[in-house]
């Protein structure tokens, strides 16, 4: 049965290493008959959470930006892919801001299959804190199941990741999604 896959590419660089792995995941998913949509977080207008709790009981943020539409897509998707470059041993600000802004409806983002993609100049060990943070988010989503983690390690220059096994791993994960 075809699945609806939402790929949240948090790379600030279009065509950056984590963004390219998102493309590989989408390619595999589409070849397997799934519907894949890649959303470049950098191109969205998402303001930081105000912690005002204006969303409490309403399910809607008081801020009027692109996050409401993104939340709709997250709720509707069967599969979520969260992708980020690793900066200072953590996810980038674009992904963290998006995660924080799920507060109004995070309990509706339920029963999702989730994949993580992370890229870094350092090795896999340097990315574990980032993956732990991403797992912390999915631990808050009812019924979420992490199905895979793709580590694009040892890449710094734009495009280097395509010469690593992570590129094929992302493609294969998309086919299996």
TrEMBL record:
Domain called NADPH-dependent FMN reductase-like: residue spans: 4-144
Transmembrane segments: none
UniProt KW keywords: Flavoprotein, FMN
A GO molecular-function descriptor: oxidoreductase activity
Protein name: Flavodoxin family protein
Species annotation: Pseudoflavonifractor capillosus
